[in-house]
Amino acid sequence: MEDLRVEIPKKFKRSLERRFDLKRVKYEIFGDRKLYYIEGKCKLCLDYLYKCACCPFGKFKSRGVAGCVRWIEKVIGRCHFAVSDIDVNWWEEYDKEARQQIKKLVEEAKKLITWV
Questions:
Q1: How far is the C-alpha of 20 from the C-alpha of 40, rounded, in Å?
Q2: CB 47 within 8 A of CB 56
Q3: In angstroms, how far is CA 107 from the centroid of its own chain?
Q4: Which of 46, 47, 85, 89 is 20 to 30 A from 53 in CA distance terms?
């Protein structure tokens, strides 16, 4: 089994916790579809821009998929939400599953992330 533990500088803790805080969910309507999102730029992406290999999640990168995305998939399985450098989002039809997965990700991250 692959070691999914990561060490992340403490200066990123608050912003990463806010990115996956379900109390901060908002939504927008696009035509007849609702897009849920948690707004917040990824401070890791901003700090490691163009240096993905140096990012704490860089060791999980594969075939053009960012290391953080691959790490999330390894922790919770196929995602019903998407992560970008500006938010975490999902469509209304995946609302229940996405929220459950985000909740699981937050719990697993507490075990796998060491803040240094």
A1: 9
A2: no
A3: 13
A4: 89
